[in-house]
Amino acid sequence: MEQKYTQPLSTVQSGASVKLASIAAGRGLNSRLASMGLVPNTVITVVNNGHPGPFIISVKGSRMMLGRGMAQKIMVCPCDHEEHHSRLSGQSE
Amino acid sequence: MKNITVALAGNPNSGKTTIFNFLTGARQHVGNYPGVTVEKKEGICKYDDVEMTLVDLPGTYSLTAFSVEELVARNFIIRKRPDVVVDIVDASNIERNLYLATQLIEMNVPLVLAFNMSDVAQQKGLVFNIEQMSQLLEAPIVPMIGNKGKGKKELLDAVVKTVRREPTLRKHRINYGEEIEHELSALVTLIVDKEQELTGQYGARWLAVKLLEQDDDVTEKVRDREILNAVRRSVDHLKSIFGDEPEVVMADRRYGFISGACQETIKMTVESRHNYSDMIDAIVINRILGLPIFLILMYLVFFLTFKIGAYPMGWLEMFFEWASRAIAHSWPADSAVWLKSLLIDGVIGGVGGVLVFLPNILLLFMAIALLEDTGYMARAAFIMDRIMHKIGLHGKSFIPMLIGFGCSVPAIMATRILENRRSRLTTIMVIPLMSCGARLTIYALMIPAFFAPRWHGPMMWFIYLIGIALAIICIKILRLTLLQGETIPFVMELPPYRVPTLKSVAIHMWQRGWMYLRKAGTIILVISVLLWLASSYPKPSEETLANLDDEQARQTVLEHSVIGRLGRAIEPAIKPLGFDWKIGTALIGATAAKEVFVSQLAIVYAVGSSDGGTTTLRERLRANYTPLTGFCIMLFCLIYAPCVATVAMTKQETHSWRWAFFQFFALTALAYLLTLIVYQLGNAVA
C-alpha cells in the first residue's frame, strides 16, 4: 500500500471526495465502521463539514453522521479522480 | 400443514420491520431474547400449506460479537437453525446492505434476498440483472416495495421453494486473497482435527474466519490451546503484512466481493437527480434552526401525549367512576360489605389505575413511530448528542427523559428507541428523577401551603431542577460503576426521509399498547389490590367507629390498617427527616401512585375531599409543620421509591427484578440521605 500524506477527515471541506487511509480507533469501533462501509480505500464524500454543525459524509451511497471526535480519528488521503469513484454511490453533484 | 421458522435479517433502515408487519399483520408476539434487553418479535404467516413463524432479528450491519444485537442475531441463526433466513436488503443502497448478506452466505444458511425499496433504486437509476446476481450470490432474489406491500407473494414463494429444495454446497465463496486464505486453510485443518463438536455446530471455515477476526465469542468457545496459539501467530503474521487488523482487511475483501458482483449485474441508467433528503436536512439539522425545530417537535410530542391524552384519560376515569357508583347503588345493603369494597376500591381502582396510562402510551408511541418512520429520529439524536454525550448518554436518551416529565411509565417504555443496552439501562434507572405529573400534584399542594406567592414559581422550578441535577449525577455515577464501558462514539446512518405508512404506525401503537396491558398491567393490578388491602385491613371494631362521622371513621380505619401501622412503625426512622407518622403513612400509601400522597394525607388529617378540602388541608399542614419540613417532604417525594407502575415497567423492560429493586431501594436511600442532610443543616442554621 503506497503511503501518500494523510490528514484527518475533519479537515476536509464540504463537497470534497477523499479516500480512507486508516482509522485510529479501538478494534470494536473499527469493526463497526467497517461493517458500515468504512474500509480502507473507500471513497468518502464530505456532504457537510458544518463547523460546528453536523459532520455528514456519503459512503457507498448512504449518508452517515459522525461526531467531530470521530471525524478526527479517520485518516484520509487525496483521491485520484475517477479512478476509485463508485458508480453506485448515487450522490447528487 | 408444515411448520417452518423464517428469520428476517437486515440493516437498520432497510425496511425490515415494515416487511415483517406486512407479512404477519397484527398477529405478532413481542418479547425479549433470553437474558438480554433486546426485543424479539415473532409473528405467524400462512402461505400455501405452510405455516411460517417469522422472527424479526435485530437490525444490524454485520454479525460480529461487538454488539449485543449482532450477537443475538447470530446466535439465533446458529442455535435455532431457522429453515430460511430472509435478508432484507435496501436495493437503493445495495453495496453496504449486501455486507450482511456476505456474512450470512459464510454461515451457509438457506438464504433468500429481498431487494426492498426497488422503486427508490429505480428512481436512482439502478437497473439490476436479478437472474445473474442471484447466480453469483447463490440465493433467490425477490424485488419488493415493502411500504406498498409489493412482492409479498413472490417472497413467500421463494421462501417455500427454498425450504423444499435439496440443500446444495455453494460454488462460490468469498475469497480473502492468498495470504489470508493460506492462514484460513491451515486453521480449518486444525479445527476439523481438534474441535469436532464445534465444527459440527458452526462449520470449520466459519470458525476459522471468526478466529482470524479475533471474535471474542468464538475465541472463548475454543478450548484447544494449539488452535488458539496458531490463531495468534496467524493474526500477528497478517498484521505485519497488511499493517492493519485482519478483520479490517477481511471486511475490505468482502466489500471487494460485493463490488465485483455489483459491477457485473447492475447498470446505472440515469445520473441521480436532486437529493430531497439533503435539501430537507439543510433546514432540519441546520446549526441555527436545528435545535428550535427539535424543541418544537418535542413540545408537540409532549403535548400530544399528555394534553390530548388527557381527554381519553378523562373519559376512562368517568367510566370507572360511573361503574363504581353503579355497583355501590345496586349493592344489597349490609351484605358482604368487604366484597363491595374490594370490587370498588380494589379491583375497579386497580384496573382503572392500569388503563388510565393507555391513552398516553398509545399516543406517545404514535409520535415515536412517526419520528422513527419519517427518519427524523436519527436527526434528533444528532442534535441532542452533543449535550447528552457530555453526561455519558446517547442523544436519543433525551426523548424518554423528556417524556418522564409527563409519566415514568411510558418514558421507560420509550427507552426502546435506544439500541445500546448500557445507555438504555442507565436511562431507565434515572427516569423516576424527572418529576412526573403525579408528583406535580404533591408540589401543588405543598408549595402554596408553605411559601409566599412570589416564591411559588421559583420553588417549583427549583424542585424540577433538583431532579434534573440528580439525574445527571446519578448517570455519571452509574457509568463509572455498575454500567461502565466506553460511550459509543457517535456514528449513525442518516436514513433518507420517507413518508410513513398508516399501517406501520397503527401496528406500532397496537403492539406497544397490548404489551403494556399484558405485561406491566398485570403486575400493576396485583400490587394495587395488595396496597388497597394494606390500607383497609385490619379493620377497627364496630364500636370504635360507631360514634364517628364519615371523615373521622376513614381516619380511624387508615390508622388501624397495615399501612397506618407501618407509618407509625417507621416514625423513628423518618423523625430525623422532620417527618411524623402521618407523613410516613402517606408516603407508604403513595408507592401505589404518587398522587395518592395527597389523598392519604387528607385522610390522616380527617379533611373531607369535598368543599375546599385542599385549602383546609393546606391550613392543617401549615399549622403542623415548618416550611423546612414542607420542602423536605417535596424533596423526599421527588426522589424516593418509584410508584408500583414504574417498578413493574422497569421489571418488564430490564427483564429482571434485580434492576427494579435496585432502582427502588437506591432511590429511596438517596432520598433519605439528601433529605436528612437538608433537614439537619436547615435546622442547624435556623
What would you say this structure looks like, in words?
- The complex is a heterodimer of chains A (93) and B (686).
- Chain A has 93 residues and is an alpha+beta fold.
- Chain A has one domain: Roll (SH3 type barrels).
- In chain A, 16% of the residues lie in helices and 33% in strands.
- Chain A has a 6-stranded antiparallel beta sheet.
- In chain A, strand 4 and strand 5 form a beta hairpin.
- Chain A is globular, with a radius of gyration of 12 Å.
- The N and C termini of chain B lie far apart (80 Å).
- Chain B contains 34 helices and 10 strands.
- Chain B has 4 domains: 163 residues, 3-Layer(aba) Sandwich (Rossmann fold); 91 residues, Helix Hairpins (Orthogonal Bundle); 144 residues, no CATH class; 143 residues, no CATH class.
- Chain B has a 7-stranded mixed beta sheet with strand order 2-3-4-1-5-6-8, sandwiched between helices. Chain B has a two-stranded antiparallel ribbon with strand order 7-9.
- Classes of the chains: A alpha+beta (93), B alpha/beta (686).
Question: Key terms for this structure?
Answer:
heterodimer; A: 93 residues; alpha+beta; SH3 type barrels; 6-stranded antiparallel beta sheet; 2 helices; 16% helix; disordered C terminus; B: 686 residues; alpha/beta; Rossmann fold; Helix Hairpins; 4 domains; 7-stranded mixed beta sheet; two-stranded antiparallel sheet; 34 helices; 10 strands; elongated
